[in-house]
TrEMBL record, chain A:
Pfam families the record matches: PFOR_II, POR, POR_N
CDD domains the UniProt entry points to: TPP_PYR_PFOR_IOR-alpha_like (cd07034)
Protein name per its UniProtKB record: 2-oxoacid oxidoreductase (ferredoxin)
Record domain Pyruvate flavodoxin/ferredoxin oxidoreductase pyrimidine binding: where: 255-505
Location of the Pyruvate:ferredoxin oxidoreductase core domain: 532-626
InterPro entries per the UniProt record, alphabetical: 2-oxoacid/accept_OxRdtase_asu, 2-oxoacid_Fdx_oxidoreductase, PFOR_II, Pyruvate:ferred/Flavod_OxRd, Pyrv/ketoisovalerate_OxRed_cat, Pyrv_Fd/Flavodoxin_OxRdtase_N, Pyrv_flavodox_OxRed_cen, THDP-binding
Taxonomic source organism: Nitrososphaera viennensis EN76
Automatic annotation (TrEMBL), chain B:
Highest taxon, organism lineage: Archaea
MF-aspect GO terms: 2-oxoglutarate synthase activity; iron-sulfur cluster binding; metal ion binding; thiamine pyrophosphate binding
Protein name according to UniProt: 2:oxoacid-ferredoxin oxidoreductase, beta subunit
Co-factor(s): [4Fe-4S] cluster; thiamine diphosphate; Mg(2+)
Pfam families to which the protein is assigned, alphabetical: PFO_beta_C, TPP_enzyme_C
UniProt-listed Enzyme Commission number(s): 1.2.7.3
Keywords annotated in UniProt: Iron, Iron-sulfur, Magnesium, Metal-binding, Oxidoreductase, Thiamine pyrophosphate
CDD domains per record: TPP_OGFOR
Domain Thiamine pyrophosphate enzyme TPP-binding: 49-196
Taxon lineage: Archaea, Nitrososphaerota, Nitrososphaeria, Nitrososphaerales, Nitrososphaeraceae
InterPro entries given in the database record: 2-oxoacid:Fd_oxidored_beta (IPR053399), 2-oxoacid:Fd_oxidoreductase (IPR051457), OFOB (IPR011896), PFO_beta_C (IPR032686), THDP-binding (IPR029061), TPP_enzyme_TPP-bd (IPR011766)
One GO term of the biological process aspect: organic acid metabolic process
Residues in Pyruvate ferredoxin oxidoreductase beta subunit C-terminal domain copies: 200-284
Amino acid sequence: MIVNSLSWVIGGAQGSGVDSAANIFSRACAVGGLHVFGKREYYSNIKGEHSYFTVRVAEKRIRSPVDEINILVSFDAETVFRHFDEVTPGGAIFYDSDAAETKLSEVPTVDDYAAARIQGTLEKAGLELTVQGALEHAKKRGVTLYPLPYFKLLEDFAQKMNDPSLSKLARMTNVMALAASMALLEFDIEILARGIKHIFHAKQRVAELNVKAAYHIYEYAKSKFARDGFNYRLTTRAPEPGIIAVQGSQSSALGKMVAGCRFQTYYPITPASDDSEFLESNEVLELYDSGKKGSTVVVQTEDEIAAITMAIGGALAGARSATATSGPGFSLMAEAMGWAGINEVPVVVSLYQRAGPSTGLPTRHEQGDLQFAIHAGHGEFPRIVLASGDIEESFYDTVKAFNLAEKYQLPVIHMLDKAIANSITTCPAFDPARVKIERGAIATKITDAERGAAGNYLRFKLSDNPISPRIPLGTEGAIFWNTGDEHTEEGHITEDPEVRSRMVEKRMGKLEIALKEIPDEDKAMMYGEKDAEIAIIGWGSTKGVVLDVMEKLAEEGIRTKFVQVRLLNPFPADLVKSMIGNAKVVVDIEMNYTSQLGALVKQHTGIEPGHLVVKYNGRPMSLEEVYNAVKRITSGKAPRRQVLKNGT
Amino acid sequence: MALKLADYKTDVHNDWCPGCGDFGILNAIQMALADMQVPPHKATIFSGVGCSGKTPHFIRTYGIHTLHGRVMPFAQGAKLSNPGLEVIAVGGDGDGLGIGAGHFVSAGRRNVDMTYIIFNNAVYGLTKGQASPTLKLGMKTKSLPQPNVNNSVNPIALALVAGFTFIARGYSYDVRHLKDLIRKAVEHKGLAFVDVLQPCPTYNDINTKEWFSGSNNIDPVTKKVMPRIYKLEETGYDGIVRDPAEINEKMGKVIEKANEWGDKIPIGVFYQNEHIPTFQERISARIPNYVESPPAKQEIADLSGKTITNIEKLLDDYRLDRENF
């Protein structure tokens, strides 16, 4: 019997409530005092294509996806076809018994490549190319099957509720499937009901109906299925105080509210839109100790060029301004990044990476934009690039991004990704008291010394300090100019070679100051054992999987350390070098083809990672494959470069 | 003390070509600002890229010379963050109707309370005379290797269908008239567009000052010059929408007038409609204190740098011991 440790997957056609069911499951487990880590996989499609949500549950904090499925919950044929082979021996599959005879060829959304793989597996085992065949395959490996006649269950429920129209409510099969699995897990139905009400709190009738349906199926499953053959149980307890269950698409937006971001522009793009939509949904803000309300103005623009330039306009007026986008949108923003750079405008870009190039895999994960973020735009100008490793970090980093933008008066790119945005986790509650807002040098009163010969404010004054106080448009007595051309101290166009050189030095000099002033913990973090011989380097959302792998290795006595680079530009070379220290083996782990961080580390520290572990199939790295990759390295059997390929 | 025209001038050397139509537009903007007594620090002139892009450097207000084609989003961003600013955007016809055409149309949909002036000379000047989006089909200005193969966009009609709520056309050699138009545009509640016909003496050898004034257009019978430019207001034309019921009728007339070109070219106010809510009003409907407390004017931290934004209620949604029902 395995208690409070499992990987639960629900799948179904996009638009059939997979997300809601997974969110209910996650919320219920978290309310039941368990830790969860969930990730969502879906096609670039509105309705019909296969989507699934994996939720890991444990008693301690977990941070990574896994490949293996202990419990597969389905209500369509495709989910069985796609995942039957991933369910572990001793695991279980809940499926629609009416769909058992469905042939593989009858599911048009299973593409040819996937169909060929499924066909290969089933034919090798001499099984029919049907759901039943797939189920037989799983059964042979020790998976228990739980047939659910959803059509009949709905009819029974409609009869019980005395409302024949309910039998047509196929939308409820998601919650019914979920409830059936919860019955076998012996999960507290009261807590499950609370989870349903929480997720559907905006739609009371839907919530009530789903709760009743959940009870109905819960009882059915309890009475129908023997539980002694079922290996997993979830036992609830009081949740740890101060723990939250939160989605990655909202954490940075919450950070923006706290940071005082009051102007956000965006053009719709997956997976970044949620950030803006969350801000807009909560545009009126509560303020402490004030009768007044705050607000965030969110503008959906005509394109990403307008998004970044409008945000820059907002910043010029004095507002903390940001835009949120993904790779294709950020490509369009490159020119304006340079404008913000040359005019020393603080603006924040939340860059939610997805798999590129071009449209790439619009709903899938990759860390392919690191070098692009560092270099986007022609010419040379200062920018700060920082990357968050998980949902919790992304909240605090967002505030830091605005502070850095304003202190050093430059564009800041805050790198996030699809894996963070489309995951859910339990973590300590975000604590706004832990953050400090630093707005940098702002001129409030202009003295004569700050004026040039023509009596105008010298916005770009050349002095020993490259940071010249900025000033919002509209301030009395402080008129200045901006231009995308090289400029004088007042901000007028110049092509003078001496002024040009000094202005380039002024701008670029800010990065040296930033590198000195940014605290070490915001530059890079070291986890694990300082003197370990194996050093793993990484950035962004691979943090979770690396930490979980390290824990597993530590249990076997394999000592490792992890250097998570958080500040990617300017690059904290000395710190990273000292953190890698005397490690004999340096392993670079990242979600791209070219080992972009590894290249940066080599460029800045001279240390060339001896091992590369990369992945670019659009699915985040799993615990198993990273563990195996590192084990291959420690056993001396690994090639220099290992390409990970797991994922559905 | 009253502000004088000189208060809006800088000592920056102006490197436009001698005889450039830009000078008249620059003067008209400065005169309009002086007329309205706009405190220089209250105004920001945004510009795109090209000859017209240099305009802000010659005006002593805040001046933001942006990117090619992007003047409108920059300007709207500033205005939305601080609606107290008087924002005027300027740019060329290539800038606003070529590379920036998408922004032009989208700006019309928003109706942000600001003014956009296009310096329209039908050529790209600073890159040496290529055809702009307003050059007529088949025209061959002197730098073109071949006659223009593209049809021209009609800025007045485009502004109308995009949703601009004030639409006027001026002529850069009629500075006083243009000044009045700019003043009306700035005072208009909503997004105002002023299309300014502006000879490019260096590259547009067709739509020249002489061509517009008619000095090369002599009536064969009367031997009198026949000016191409005429003023709408002198013909009794009235483009002001006084009642929402007359919007369709007025819009139809704008299209009719916008299509006049050649021997008769109207200038003046084509259209004005203050019945459409401005973007600021639309935001205020959702954020009641938006105008008093816009993005740029909000306090965000106390003196010690502590945030003043209270997200506790939102965090409650994630806390496990609290529920939203």
